[in-house]
Specification:
Strand content: 25-35%
Largest sheet: 8 strands, antiparallel
Radius of gyration: 22 Å
Number of strands: 21
Distance between the termini: 50 Å
Low-confidence stretches: 153-158, 236-242
Mean pLDDT: 81
Length: about 400
């Protein structure tokens, strides 16, 4: 194990980050996995005199393409060409009122209708952070609130403005608006290199719609033979009907990675199979977070964060495991003091079930606008039906206990 030196600095400030790395060289591995910090990280690396001889190359161009969500949408919309786009999702960018356009042809063309619903998200948000569903007539009002949450009290344009391919994005004020995609949702994690992509596909079999949008039961690998998935796949207008759902997802995600110029790197993608073909919900140049990372890691046979470090150091290793893995998060959907979960001892005795508490008993839950994980459950089984049966049993047994009023 190499010796590790920890240096504290404001990683959102390129100048401070540069100073902390003043003695780095072409032999120094420098890895960043935190979403927003990536912009400072790449800016600093590219300014280093030794960068042309750096032993620990990263796909910096592809990482920037992926992290700036409107730019990724623009690239997918014209790959391999405008007549046959990889992803036809409609989108547009909202600027501050009175601000002139800085993005030329990366503005998007989505037409907003007052009574329709859209997804609103920060242009470089971390996964589902800050993503909300909004009716068209309330977009400007909600965009202003999202800007306040994104910028924070100490933000400045020097930190928040990013220039990529002569397009200037403001991470604090630019807001991405996308059409609402309908269809089964999958998460795809893995590693891509010159030989192709090795990936694990997980099916989000159910979702929770509360004051936030969260995952219910997620299974890996998916039950591709399920009628609902097969029915959606058979309606694709631009795909070969005979192609299996699994190979369709793999070819789509691989094409999306190639289009963004991501190679020799880990990735986390979320897609939906709509009636018009597959669509990206997001594609990130990093491992998945939370439970998705855990269950994908089971099937890759390697922790995804370890995989990212291995890829950085050019040590690659992937091994598949057998069986079905499912996971369920338990969220706080009530305000008040969290006092624990019911029937914990019973659940711990169930075969193939692991429950891990995330929140401390006595914690005050004061905000339900985001995912508050209280615990998560991981389930192993030989079949999808076995996993679903265990999941239903566990969810009937495990209930959060609160010391206060309902919302």
């Amino acid at each position: 194990t190499p010796e590790i030196e920890v240096r504290k600095c404001d990683v959102l400030n390129p100048n401070e980050l540069r100073l902390s790395l003043h003695d780095a060289s072409e032999d120094t591995p420098i890895l960043c996995l935190q979403d927003r910090v990536v912009f400072s990280y790449i800016s600093v690396l590219e300014s280093m005199a030794w960068i042309g001889n750096w032993k620990y190359w990263i796909p910096s161009k592809g990482i920037l393409h992926a992290r700036l969500k409107p730019l990724a949408r623009k690239i997918w919309g014209s790959f391999p060409d405008h007549a046959h786009p990889l992803d036809k999702t409609n989108w547009r960018v909202l600027h501050n009122k009175g601000e002139s356009s800085r993005l030329k042809d990366a503005e998007g063309t989505l037409k907003i209708e007052e009574d329709s619903y859209y997804y609103m998200k920060p242009i470089a948000g971390m996964g589902s952070e800050g993503v909300i569903k909004v009716q068209g007539k309330f977009l400007e009002k909600e965009a202003e609130q999202l800007r306040k949450r994104t910028q924070g009290p100490n933000s400045s344009d020097d930190v928040l403005c990013v220039n990529v391919s002569n397009l200037i994005f403001n991470l604090g004020s630019d807001i991405l608006i996308e059409e609402v995609l309908v269809g089964p949702e999958f998460t795809v994690d893995g590693f891509i290199d010159d030989k192709g992509a090795s990936m694990v596909i997980q099916h989000k079999e159910s979702q929770i719609f509360s004051t936030f949008i969260g995952d219910g039961l997620v299974c890996s690998p998916p039950a591709f033979h399920d009628k609902v998935i097969g029915a959606v796949a058979s309606r694709f207008k631009d795909q070969i009907v005979q192609e299996s759902t699994e190979s369709l997802i793999k070819s789509f995600v691989t094409a999306g990675l190639r289009a963004l110029e991501i190679n020799n790197w880990v990735f986390h993608a979320e897609i939906k199979l709509t009636s018009d073909g597959p669509r990206f919900v997001e594609l990130n140049p990093r491992p998945a977070g939370g439970l998705l990372s855990l269950t994908a890691g089971y099937h890759l046979g390697l922790d995804l964060f370890e995989l990212c470090i291995r890829s950085h150091l050019r040590i690659n290793s992937l091994h598949r495991t057998q069986g079905i893995t499912g996971h369920i998060p338990i969220y706080a959907q009530q305000l008040g003091k969290y006092m624990g979960l019911t029937n914990l001892e019973v659940v711990k005795m169930l075969d193939g079930v692991m429950l891990q508490e995330q929140e401390t008993i006595g914690t005050e839950i004061s905000d339900l606008s985001q995912e508050n994980y209280l615990a998560f459950i991981v389930i192993h089984g030989n079949t999808h039906e076995c996993v679903r049966t265990k999941a239903n049993l566990v969810m009937a047994l495990v209930k959060p206990i609160f010391e206060s009023k309902d919302i």
